[in-house]
Amino acid sequence: MRRLLPVLCLAVLAAAGCSDMGVRNSDAATVNGVGISTDQLSEMTKAQLGQQQAAAQQGQSQSQDIEGATRQALEGLIQFQLVLDGAKKEGVTVNESDVDARMEQLKQQVAAQGQNFEELLQTRQISEQVLRNQQRVQLAVDLIAVKLVPYSPDAELRQTLAKRKDEFLELHVRHVLVKDKAAAEAARQELVSGGDWATVAKKRSIDTQSKGKAGDLGYNAKGATVKPFETAEFALAAQGDCKGRTSGTCASPISQPVKTQYGYHVIQVVGVRLPKLDNDLRAKLEPKVKDQRQQAIQSWFEKQVKAAEVTINPRFGRWDAENGKVIERETAPGAATTTTAGLGGAQP
Predict the structure, then answer these.
(1) Confidence of residue 230 (pLDDT cuts 50, 70, 90)
(2) For the chain, how far is it from start to end, CA to CA, in angstroms?
(3) C-alpha span between 238 and 206 (Å, rounded)
(4) Pick from 47, 44, 141: which is nearest to 86 by CA?
């Protein structure tokens, strides 16, 4: 039976770039000899359907197409593996500590918007492992892009950062979140009278993510929080001994109650800093390379697709090696549902 596998693969998958070993029943696909398990596909499909559901709730017309979502999910997983394989060939290594930092940044952004990270993942039907894998792949793409189209020297970029410090200043913030203005005024009065933030936050705050940490939200950059909160925190940073500083601990005045869609906040800035010069910041400081880098990475990715050896379990579709797409099974009913080839389709 083993010698027939390549023949069966070619007959069913129509020039899918099959390996001599084919694809195991427990795998949804293999990419350059690496298996993508059906469990991985199930997780990614759930996330894809969660995205469709979220879009529908926001008024965007999208139907729940399970077979289409499965193909999109598998296409994304294949693209993930192609990026990681290509990164290895380029000598690019993604450090798990950098993935940890990306995940922590996401959690802080979600907390700063008054949401629960675990509940948000559950609502979107996405597991933390899927999200972590996405961040790992995105980091690999970023590193490859930098290698293909380098940034200016760091010394020049630091000079640019110093000139544009107001755009990039990050604030270390703590808050107490309550349901109504009267409760916020009571919390504020307790704090300005010398009350301990840990005690007041634990007793009064409805923010379950920060109330056990003395209301600490960590560092926020512009755009990380809802607008009323952002306006208030940056106004506070221009007062007290935080005024004019770009690093270190400080203490702004305690805000009047600030209303957002989550309730009423009492806010204080307790530190300021400029972000470290990583690739995310380099991209913001030097936007002129963005288009060049997108074109370079797209061209690089297309080469990975054309050189790849991809086999798909016929239960889930066929591999279009020319366009780098997962397309309908020949026996599947209805019109084909495909996604555009390229890195844009890699995330659910």
Answers:
(1) very high
(2) 37
(3) 27
(4) 141
pLDDT level of residue 54 (50, 70, 90 thresholds):
confident
pLDDT band at 67 (very low <50, low <70, confident <90, very high): confident
Q: Rounding to the nearest 10 degrees, give the CA dihedral for residues 321, 325, 326, 330.
A: -60
- Sorted by where each starts, the structural domains of the chain and their CATH numbers stand as 2-149+288-346 (1.10.4030), 170-273 (3.10.50.40)
CA distance linking residue 129 with residue 310, whole number of Å: 23
Residues in a beta bridge with 175:
267
CA 312 to chain CA mean position, Å:
27
Q: What average pLDDT does the segment 77-106 reach?
A: 94
Alpha helices, H only, 58-209: 66-89, 96-112, 117-124, 128-148, 154-163, 165-168, 181-192, 197-204
Q: What are phi and psi of 275, to 5 degrees?
A: -65, 155
Helices marked H in 149-226 — which ranges?
154-163, 165-168, 181-192, 197-204
Which pLDDT score, from 0 to 100, does residue 2 have? 22
Residue type, 104: E
Q: Hey, what amino acid is at 180?
A: D
Closest CA to 221 of 259, 275, 268, 258: 275
Query: 151: helix, coil or strand?
Result: coil
Instruction: Give the count of alpha carbons within 13 A of 232, CB side only.
Output: 21
Residues in the chain: 348
Per the rule left: phi > 0, alpha: psi between -120 and 50, beta: everything else, 95 is beta
User: Is the pTM above the cut of 0.70?
Assistant: no
Q: Is 13 helix (H, G, I), strand (E, B) or coil?
A: helix
For the CA atoms of 159, 162, 165, 171, the dihedral, rounded to the nearest 10 degrees, stands at 110
Q: Which element (helix H / strand E) includes 41?
A: helix 38-57
d(CA 201, CA 99): 30
- Report the amino acid identity of residue 218: G
Say if residue 331's pLDDT is above 80: no
